[in-house]
Amino acid sequence: MKIRLLFILFFITAYSYAQVSTSQIENNGTSLNSVEIQNNEFTIAPNPAKNKLNIKFQNRVEDLKLEVFDVLGKRIYKGVISKLESSIDVSNWKSGVYLVRISDDTETQTKRFIKQ
Prior knowledge:
Blueprint: H1 2-26, H2 32-39, E1 42-45, E2 52-57, E3 64-70, E4 75-81, E5 85-89, E6 96-103, E7 108-115
Antiparallel strand pairs: 1-2, 2-5, 3-4, 3-6, 6-7
């Protein structure tokens, strides 16, 4: 079971990196999107979280898709972010590891958080 969970985590993380690499290739090999990702990277806090998960961006945000997955790949939460700072109520979620994925039409960022 642990090996299966690790494989799923690896697959989801590798998928996110593959999407970033693909978008760089589509821009004639330039690293424009990697610069955009670094400039508008999101942070999640607190980590680990008990009741509320705060998501913050460094720059302006325009309707980004937010999804949270458990380690088995099941989507737990789906929403849209349109502010620099947003919060998700995680108080009713089971304890464990979750993946937060933020995406738009051209790029995807994934981060991991632990629910206590």
